[in-house]
Specification:
This protein is globular. By secondary structure, the chain is α+β, with helices and mostly antiparallel strands. It has four helices and five strands. It has a five-stranded mixed beta sheet with strand order 4-1-3-2-5. The protein has a single domain, classed as Alpha-Beta Plaits (2-Layer Sandwich), CATH 3.30.70.
């Protein structure tokens, strides 16, 4: 019991109240190349699930794929690098930008007319 008394007050208050969402961020990823009709959205959803990233991915009319991803910044960096491993896709360009924090319950594929 005495050991707990030596813990600084601010640290003891933070124990058990850690909210990881404070350290989360949302990024927008736009991928161009041969990325539609090759299973790219499904691959991205699968990668996101493995890393506990939430968001959505969709085809765009210009032939590119866009994804919004929310999660821990370190896991988001890993997620971005893993996108290049999606089979059958030929990625010409991958643009990433940080955007306002968006809340998603999970990672979903958003259907479009191109699907």
């Amino acid at each position: 019991m005495e050991a707990d008394e030596r813990i600084p007050a601010d640290l003891s208050q933070r124990r058990g109240k850690t909210d990881l969402r404070h350290s989360e961020k949302t990024i927008e990823i736009r991928i161009s190349g041969k990325v539609q009709r090759v299973g790219m959205r499904n691959c991205i959803r699968m990668l996101a699930g493995k890393l506990s990233i939430r968001g959505e991915v969709m085809n765009l009319p210009d032939g590119s794929v866009m994804a919004y991803a929310t999660g821990d910044p370190i896991l988001l960096e890993k997620f971005i690098s893993m996108i290049y491993s999606c089979p059958r896709a030929v990625i010409r360009d991958l643009e990433v930008r940080e955007c306002s924090l968006l809340a998603f319950p999970d990672f979903v594929i958003t259907r479009s007319e191109i699907s």
